Amino acid sequence: MPESDLITVKNLTKHFPLGGGLFAKPGAWVKAVNGVSFNVRKGESFGIVGESGCGKTTLGQMIVRLLEPTGGQIFFKGSDITHLNRSMLRPFRQKLQIIFQDPYSSLDPRMTVVSIVTEPLFAQGKPSKDRRRQVAADLMEKVGLRPDDLNKFPHEFSGGQRQRIGIARALCVRPELIVADEPVSALDVSIQAQVINLLGDLKEAFDLSYVFISHDISVVEHITDRIAVMYLGAIVEIAPTGQFISNRHHPYSAALLEAIPQPDPHHRIRPVAMEGDVPNPIDPPPGCPFHPRCPHAFDRCRTDKPELTHIIDEHAVACWLNDGQGIIK
Ligand code: SF4
User: Fold this and answer.
1) 100 occurs within a structural domain
2) Which among 107, 106, 119, 128 is positioned nearest to 173, based on CA atoms?
3) Strands (E), the chain
4) Distance (Å, rounded) from C-alpha 154 to C-alpha 105?
5) Closest by alpha carbon to 196, among 255, 136, 144?
6) 167 occurs within a structural domain
7) At 81, which CATH number?
8) What is the pLDDT of residue 24?
């Protein structure tokens, strides 16, 4: 495992039993994540994109150990943290923080900002009141909020300001990696760029690495060094961001990219047909999981599953049409 790797994920899976308790359907599982492997290097921003239900949020929550994996391994700086118990996990947990999608439900409405932002400090022992105020005021400034507002409650802030409070809370214990799960999708478009720029500035200031999860490639492309595309619980393409944007290989990646609205009315591209919804993860289709929606599917796609295969340097794709030249033009 290279020393530059901050996080390494090997063959990670998460299967949820269908139903619960007495009414659980025997043998039926929702296969949310199915054998995902990748690494995130120190200082890197790694993007995970895909439609709703592709397993990207479940994957992010496993990385910070909010969810227990069904199988596979998670390494932080070479240490296997997959099955550490609560107390053994504590020093690692401070290094791995998460920013949630919804800035409304992720902040306790009964707590003041100073309590919310400094809550993670209690994992290091009981901090004094003065220290909490000092840490919170400093972080408020760093995320572009007024330190004078420490005693306010979440409902007194706008959506964008609440997301900044969530970011300040994640930074409180000086993490090395932040998993940002759709951090701007609940915000007005006018605010999204501000929060993305803030995350970019904080990366430098706090020497951070990110796992940036989004359904929207146009958000991720501006802040990531590499992008992984997930479909039905698996990575179907992974590449450096620039290379991915200019020379994506998987038909699903092409469809996601070409779904991005273009501001230039003269910009004409041939849209890639993608019909139907994501298949049911309880009963995924045989062969390539994308074949029921793929405009290029042929016989082999319906029976044999393509594995993620390197085509050049760090670019890998799971598609039988992969010829190393880029298949969708
Ligand atoms: Fe489409 Fe076949 Fe490639 Fe799957 S393997 S993405 S169905 S062409």
Assistant:
1) no
2) 119
3) 5-17, 29-41, 45-49, 71-76, 79-80, 96-99, 177-181, 209-214, 226-231, 234-240, 309-312, 315-317
4) 10
5) 144
6) no
7) 3.40.50.300
8) 59
**Residue to mutate (ligand 1; options 288, 298, 300; most atoms within 8 A of CB):** 288
Q: How many CB atoms lie within 10 A of CB 211?
A: 28
Contact 222, 262 (CB under 8 A): no
Three-state DSSP state, 49:
strand
Please state the pTM of the whole predicted model.
Answer: 0.89
Testing ligand 1's pocket by substitution, the residue of 237, 278, 291 carrying the most ligand atoms inside 8 A of its CB is: 291
The pLDDT tens digits for 115-150 are: 999 988 887 778 888 999 999 999 999 999 999 999
Q: Which atom of ligand 1 is nearest to the CA of 289?
A: 4
User: In the β-sheet with 45-49, what is the strand arrangement from edge to edge?
Assistant: 96-99, 177-181, 209-214, 45-49, 226-231, 234-240, 315-317, 309-312
Q: Mind listing the pLDDT tens digit for each residue in 247-272? A: 999 999 999 998 776 655 555 444 45
- Closest Cα to atom 3, ligand 1: which residue? 319
- Note whether residue 208 is domain-resident: yes
Please give the tally of structural domains in the chain: 1
Which parts of the chain register pLDDT below 50? 268-271, 324-329
